[in-house]
């Protein structure tokens, strides 16, 4: 669906069903250079199992108009404005990598809007090699290829896919090559408030981490989990791009965590 946010047309996937604000809402927040397509399996399951789904493309990404936001803090603020535009009071926020940093900022700025937090392949800080940012400024496609080499585990690099007929690395390359990757990477590199913000969050939290993650190492993800007293699942033999690389495993963790919270209310 399309929704106007701050005068700009924003695209948000809804999992293949019309959005219904009376249902519990799950907000999916994409990572650097990505968009709603990284959540294809997860959004569809939630949409067809009693939830409403919102998977927005940030401004300047894929089908969303406007200029890319340049800081994680601005992205968190924008998510609150997006939810106001859709007239949603509260969400289960799910973020991949950079997306979870944005979810932290959303929960910090508007705690009443966030019923739970789920982070996938993430940490309190996501340092980025300056050479990668420079490459992204020169050629988004070359930078995307570098990230995809580091971002997927060994099985994906050998062509093994969790979804028959779909090659996750090719999907990632198609999405990232046409999005403002350099802006997103610089926003991650500049973000220094993650630990402080994480300490202030009271919402139930889970982290889904990857055993072969070369971009947000497992040790850093576990440190964030300790800070937030978060439930932790480690998916071995997979890399940073878990929502695309291990979509079924991610979905299992998400639906169990979100479902338990909904059923306890």
How would you characterize this protein structure?
The chain has 265 residues and is of the alpha/beta class. It has a single domain (2-264), classed as 3-Layer(aba) Sandwich (Rossmann fold), CATH 3.40.50. It has twelve helices and eight strands. It has helices at residues 40-47, 72-86, 98-109, 130-138, 140-151, 154-157, 168-176, 181-190, 194-199, 218-228, 242-245, 247-264, and strands at residues 2-5, 8-13, 25-29, 52-56, 91-96, 114-120, 205-210, 231-235. It has an eight-stranded mixed beta sheet, with helices on both faces. Helix 1 (40-47) runs parallel beside helix 12 (247-264) and helix 2 (72-86) packs across helix 3 (98-109). The longest helix is centred in the C-terminal third of the chain and has 18 residues, at 247-264. It is globular, with a radius of gyration of 17 Å. 51% of the residues are buried.
Question: In terms of topology, how is this protein built?
Answer:
Blueprint: E1 2-5, E2 8-13, E3 25-29, H1 40-47, E4 52-56, H2 72-86, E5 91-96, H3 98-109, E6 114-120, H4 130-138, H5 140-151, H6 154-157, H7 168-176, H8 181-190, H9 194-199, E7 205-210, H10 218-228, E8 231-235, H11 242-245, H12 247-264
Parallel strand pairs: 3-4, 3-5, 5-6, 6-7, 7-8
Antiparallel strand pairs: 1-2, 2-4
Intertermini distance:
29 Å
Q: Which H/E pattern describes the elements?
A: EEEHEHEHEHHHHHHEHEHH
Q: What is the subunit arrangement here?
A: single chain
Helix content: 40-55%
**CATH first level: which class?**
Alpha Beta
Note the main sheet.
Answer: 8 strands, mixed
Mean pLDDT: 92
What characteristic shape results from the CA principal axes?
globular
């Amino acid at each position: 669906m399309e929704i106007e946010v701050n005068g700009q047309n924003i695209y948000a996937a809804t999992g293949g069903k019309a959005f219904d604000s009376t249902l519990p809402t799950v907000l999916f927040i994409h990572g650097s250079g990505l968009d709603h397509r990284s959540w294809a399996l997860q959004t569809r399951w939630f949409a067809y199992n009693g939830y409403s789904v919102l998977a927005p493309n940030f401004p300047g990404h894929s089908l969303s108009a406007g200029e890319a936001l340049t800081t994680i803090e601005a992205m968190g603020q924008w998510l609150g404005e997006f939810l106001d535009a859709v007239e949603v009071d509260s969400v289960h926020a799910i973020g991949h990598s950079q997306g979870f940093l944005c979810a932290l900022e959303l929960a910090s700025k508007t705690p009443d809007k966030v019923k739970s937090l789920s982070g996938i392949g993430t940490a309190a800080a996501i340092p980025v090699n300056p050479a990668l940012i420079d490459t992204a400024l020169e050629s988004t496609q070359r930078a995307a290829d570098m990230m995809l080499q580091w971002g997927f585990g060994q099985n994906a690099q050998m062509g093994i896919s969790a979804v028959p007929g779909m090659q996750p690395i090719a999907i990632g390359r198609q999405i990232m090559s046409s999005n403002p990757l350099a802006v997103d990477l610089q926003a991650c590199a500049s973000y220094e408030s993650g630990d402080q913000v994480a300490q202030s969050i009271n919402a139930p939290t889970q982290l889904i981490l990857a055993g072969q993650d070369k971009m947000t190492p497992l040790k850093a993800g576990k440190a964030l989990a300790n800070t937030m007293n978060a439930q932790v699942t480690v998916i071995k033999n997979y890399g940073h791009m878990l929502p695309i690389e291990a979509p079924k495993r991610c979905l299992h963790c998400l639906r169990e965590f979100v479902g338990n919270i909904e059923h306890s209310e």
